[in-house]
């Protein structure tokens, strides 16, 4: 990077490129005024109060002001400190200085003596332009003190009538009608200096050239589709880059529009101006947008002319962003940029989701951006890193900051923005925070932006800032500074973060409440003041928070196999809630209920004892994370089921299910985990643990003394061949017709078979398990319903490290009656194009579903088209796996995969709709899932097939078959018979058994 002592410049090759590509117009900002007058002479250019200036009048005012500046000796290259509020004097003076090649330094009206004195010492201005007073502050008195300390200042110019004291001059008296020859200004030279937006220390000076700033404004105006009908309301302080040129005032004038000047940004002043002048465009920062949104709830001013609201300057929450179109009645555009250069905009034709959740993409193709890690190495697509940039309107260095420039810019000229960002698949940036906005708490790094965002989800917290406070023990502790509608305690903040599954070290150590933010002179939040207040108010917190209730554990030896013992334990227990889940070689039994969690798909209810808490208003996976974090037991395991109808909510067919417990999970009071001749007993009290040990030992003994499995005689096979045979074939034929009409590609249709209510689910489960080779087996009784079965496949397996897999099965053949027949049927299955096609599309869909939630590079098919024996049938089986992306939890995976493709169809939404139309009964638990979930993130979920169901004094079986365009109703009926046999052949009738024993 080539530099001068004061102002670094771009390499000549870059400058030549921008000129050659017509990015730089080789025109000074001062010369634009005449061009605008020639194009838009009679259009109204500027409005302040009752004063309106056409473009012709604006040019004349600039010429006379420029002549006045020249007459007092201002010349090209001089610096002028300009500290004016939003006013005609600001704009006229700026362009008059541009015409002379004099460089205005744009200070904020809110800056005070210490900042201005430091800036003057750095820049040596020859003049200082101020209002006489503004918002109660005496600028002339401040100017006198500044001049006494800064010998370079020769003139104090005041934007008002002539002051009584001399030698100060009013701008109106300065204006001159003398003819002045237009200066020939080098367009590559510095046109103005903006101030950096740091929250601490003296701002740095940002030199912007005529070429780059003209492009900045004009290209922004074209992107935002400004034109002669545009009326732009300048509400933010126009010394900021955003309202000045992004596209702001200069961009509006470039297109022949009208600029209305608003002295302060409050809705009480801005709304009437919007109504009066039919304002179409304006720009705000998020805090002001929030104020406008709130004001519109009671203010009836007509602001319907407003077409576009730009929001930038800080992270805009999605919760507020989504309100803009409805509340303010205009389109939202997010803008992310910096006075140093790079501008990113969401586009006017971006989908609303992009506009709400991202900060846009760069203004032009010549913007170069890269996202890097701490070693300046590029991060992977979608990962968070520091944004670095250079381009035709990004500076090459700060003014007189040679040492700082060595670290602020890379050796190849990229500006290190300090912003942490990632890029989504659409190419839009998402700003995640600032590199330096981290708190080092006892060696643990806390991202400030993350915790601030989570604090804002509290219903009473309106604004939140997390600051680091020096601490003798931690190095730095974190303090949450909040503005809230009602008092919020530190314990309430802990509860909030616990519900969101936030790591404990990220919890704030302190909280302070304020009515308003202390501000720096340039209008940024004064974090130094917040830290000082946190130090002054700090009191050692009471850490006696409620602790989770732990389980007590004991391991005992047992003689029986887990397959025998688990159902016997369940059978001897009188608890209305109980569950058995076999996962590979481990069996788990839950008895009783100390907490229950259930959902209708849109809201979640958690019951613990007499306490009930509801969670709603967020996506299902986030609600589940919150609810699980509120469970008051330590190292819990949940047992539960999900009905098929939950899928209709996940796929947008309906907003909630009819049954409030379409997902139902419980934390057991007692638990037994069985592995290889040992039982791990878990209970919440010593008394319960002793009672559980007695129960398990009794069950272990009775497994040996009671009837052997061989003595169990199954019920004569119910009429699985004939029940609802014709109705089912009619439904299949209808589905084939719809598939041929391309309504969907595949659907799984099922039929229900009723069986006697005297069937014993425990004994049928135990006997059936001996004759099945399932992926998972289960027996659940949740108060008023029971299911038992042998799942052929897992829906979702999630490790506590976020590694997930799913096992789609599609393609079925019977095992036959001999090894030879089984092999023959297997070869037939592997060569059946219909079955292979069915399976391939299922695997493809599983991959696509994982792409929504997993790191793309981690997705793999670890097993493809293996043949798995499941009871009396064999299936084609594959396994698709991947690593969850950052920000995703196992419930994102559950929502993406549920229901299993092999029990619904392709595309899922259309297939689910077809099932709801073509099947005579609601499916309930059939083709839903059973699961166990641990508090560390482990989840194992199995598809509910090959099962027996009991509810509402009815007992039934159910099975289905995949229907595609090549299907035949008779063959699909046969497939249901084959699948039903996996459970129907092993049903134990309690009455028959009693008669045999008597």
UniProtKB/TrEMBL annotation:
Residues 450-524 form the AMP-binding enzyme C-terminal domain. Keywords: Ligase. The keyword Translocase does not apply. GO terms for molecular function: acid-thiol ligase activity; isochorismate synthase activity; oxo-acid-lyase activity. PANTHER family: LONG-CHAIN-FATTY-ACID--COA LIGASE, NONRIBOSOMAL PEPTIDE SYNTHASE PES1 (EUROFUNG)-RELATED. This is Salicylate synthase. Pfam families: AMP-binding (PF00501), AMP-binding_C (PF13193), Chorismate_bind (PF00425). The keyword Transport does not apply. Residues 725-979 form the Chorismate-utilising enzyme C-terminal domain. InterPro entries: ADC_synthase (IPR005801), AMP-bd_C (IPR025110), AMP-bd_C_sf (IPR045851), AMP-binding_CS (IPR020845), AMP-dep_synth/lig_dom (IPR000873), ATP-dep_AMP-bd_enzyme (IPR050237), Chorismate_C (IPR015890), Salicylate_synthase (IPR019996). Pathway: Siderophore biosynthesis. The lineage of its organism: Bacteria, Pseudomonadati, Pseudomonadota, Gammaproteobacteria, Alteromonadales. Residues 36-399 form the AMP-dependent synthetase/ligase domain. It comes from the Bacteria.
């Amino acid at each position: 990077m080539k530099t001068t002592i004061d102002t670094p410049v771009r390499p000549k090759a870059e400058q030549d490129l921008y000129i050659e590509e017509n990015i730089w117009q080789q025109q000074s900002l001062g010369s634009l005024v005449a061009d605008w007058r020639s194009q838009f002479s009679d259009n109204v250019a500027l409005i302040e109060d009752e004063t309106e200036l056409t473009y012709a009048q604006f040019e004349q005012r600039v010429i006379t002001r420029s002549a006045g500046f020249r007459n007092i000796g201002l010349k090209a290259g001089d610096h002028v400190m300009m500290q004016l509020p939003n006013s005609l004097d600001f704009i006229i003076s700026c362009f008059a200085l541009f015409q002379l090649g004099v460089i205005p330094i744009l200070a904020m009206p809110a800056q005070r003596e210490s900042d201005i004195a430091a800036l003057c010492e750095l820049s040596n201005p020859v003049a200082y332009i101020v209002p006489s007073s503004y918002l109660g502050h005496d600028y002339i008195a401040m100017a006198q003190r500044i001049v006494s300390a800064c010998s370079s200042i020769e003139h104090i110019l005041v934007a008002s009538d002539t002051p009584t004291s001399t030698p100060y001059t009013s701008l109106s008296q300065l204006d001159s009608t003398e003819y002045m020859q237009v200066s020939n200004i080098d367009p590559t030279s510095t046109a103005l200096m903006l101030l950096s937006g740091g929250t601490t220390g003296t701002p740095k000076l940002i030199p912007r050239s005529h070429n780059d700033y003209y492009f900045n404004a004009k290209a922004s105006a074209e992107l935002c589709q400004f034109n002669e009908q545009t009326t732009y309301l300048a509400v933010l302080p126009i010394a900021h880059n955003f309202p000045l040129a992004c596209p702001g005032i200069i961009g509006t004038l470039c297109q022949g529009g009208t600029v209305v000047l608003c002295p302060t940004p409050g809705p009480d002043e801005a709304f009437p101006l919007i109504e009066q002048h039919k304002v179409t465009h304006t720009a705000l920062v998020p805090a002001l947008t929030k104020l406008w949104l709130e004001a519109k709830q009671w203010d009836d001013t007509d602001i319907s002319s407003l077409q576009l609201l730009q929001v930038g300057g800080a992270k805009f929450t999605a919760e507020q962003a989504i309100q803009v179109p409805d509340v303010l009645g205009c389109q939202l555009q997010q803008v992310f940029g910096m006075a140093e250069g790079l501008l990113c905009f969401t586009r006017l034709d971006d989908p609303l989701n992009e506009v709400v959740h991202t900060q846009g993409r760069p203004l032009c193709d010549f913007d170069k951006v890269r996202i890097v890690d701490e070693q300046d190495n590029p991060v992977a697509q979608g990962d968070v890193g520091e944004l670095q940039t250079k381009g035709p309107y990004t500076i090459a260095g700060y003014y007189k900051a040679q040492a700082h420039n060595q670290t602020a810019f890379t050796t190849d000229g990229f500006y290190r923005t300090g912003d942490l960002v990632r890029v989504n698949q659409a190419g839009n940036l998402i700003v995640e925070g600032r590199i330096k906005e981290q708190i080092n708490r006892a060696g643990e790094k806390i991202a400030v932006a993350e915790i601030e965002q989570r604090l804002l989800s509290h219903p009473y917290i309106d604004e939140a800032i997390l600051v680091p406070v020096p601490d003798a023990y931690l190095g730095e502790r974190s303090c949450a500074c909040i503005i809230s509608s009602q008092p919020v305690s530190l314990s309430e903040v802990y509860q909030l973060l616990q519900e969101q599954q936030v790591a404990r070290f990220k919890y704030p150590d302190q909280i302070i409440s304020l009515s308003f933010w202390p501000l720096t002179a340039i209008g940024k939040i004064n974090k130094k003041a917040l830290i000082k207040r946190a130090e002054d108010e700090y009191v050692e917190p009471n850490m006696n928070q409620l602790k989770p209730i732990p389980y007590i554990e004991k391991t005992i030896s047992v003689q029986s196999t887990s397959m025998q013992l688990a159902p016997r334990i369940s059978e001897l227990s009188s608890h209305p809630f109980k569950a058995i889940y076999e996962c590979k070689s481990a069996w788990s039994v839950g008895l009783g209920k100390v907490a229950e969690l259930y959902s209708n798909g849109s809201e979640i209810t958690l019951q613990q004892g007499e306490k009930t808490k509801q969670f709603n208003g967020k996506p299902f996976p986030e609600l589940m994370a919150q609810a699980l974090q509120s469970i008051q037991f330590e190292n819990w395991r949940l047992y539960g089921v999900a009905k098929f109808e939950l899928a209709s909510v996940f796929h947008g067919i309906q907003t909630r299910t009819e049954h409030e417990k379409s997902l139902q999970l419980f934390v057991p009071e007692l638990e037994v985990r069985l592995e290889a001749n040992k039982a791990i007993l878990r209970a919440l009290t010593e008394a319960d643990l002793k009672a559980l040990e007695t129960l398990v030992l009794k069950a272990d003994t009775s497994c040996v003394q009671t009837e052997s499995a061989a003595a169990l005689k199954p019920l004569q096979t119910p009429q699985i061949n004939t029940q609802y045979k014709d109705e089912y074939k009619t439904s299949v034929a209808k589905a084939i017709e719809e598939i041929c009409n391309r309504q969907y590609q595949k659907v799984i249709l099922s039929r229900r078979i009723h069986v006697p209510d005297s069937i014993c689910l425990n004994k049928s489960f135990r006997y059936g398990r001996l004759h099945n080779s399932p992926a998972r087996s289960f027996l659940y009784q949740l108060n008023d319903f029971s299911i038992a079965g042998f799942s052929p496949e897992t829906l979702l397996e999630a490790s506590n490290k976020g590694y997930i897999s799913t096992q789609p099965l599609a393609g079925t053949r019977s095992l036959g009656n001999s090894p030879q027949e089984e092999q023959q049927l297997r070869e037939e299955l592997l060569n059946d194009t219909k079955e292979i096609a069915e399976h391939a599309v299922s695997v493809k869909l599983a991959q696509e579903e994982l792409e929504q939630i997993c790191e793309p590079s981690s997705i793999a098919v670890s097993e493809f088209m293996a043949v798995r024996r499941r009871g009396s049938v064999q299936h084609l089986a594959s396994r698709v796996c991947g690593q969850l992306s950052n920000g995703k939890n196992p419930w994102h995976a559950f929502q993406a995969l549920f229901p299993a493709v092999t029990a619904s169809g392709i595309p899922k939404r259309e297939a689910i709709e077809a099932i709801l139309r073509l099947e005579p009964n609601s499916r309930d638990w059939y083709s839903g899932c059973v699961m166990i979930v641990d508090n560390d993130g482990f989840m194992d979920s199995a598809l509910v097939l090959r099962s027996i169901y009991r509810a509402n004094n009815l007992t039934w079986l159910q099975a289905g078959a995949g229907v595609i365009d090549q299907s035949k109703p008779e063959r699909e009926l046969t497939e249901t018979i084959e699948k039903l046999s996996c459970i129907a052949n092993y049903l134990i009738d309690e009455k028959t058994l009693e008669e045999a024993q008597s």
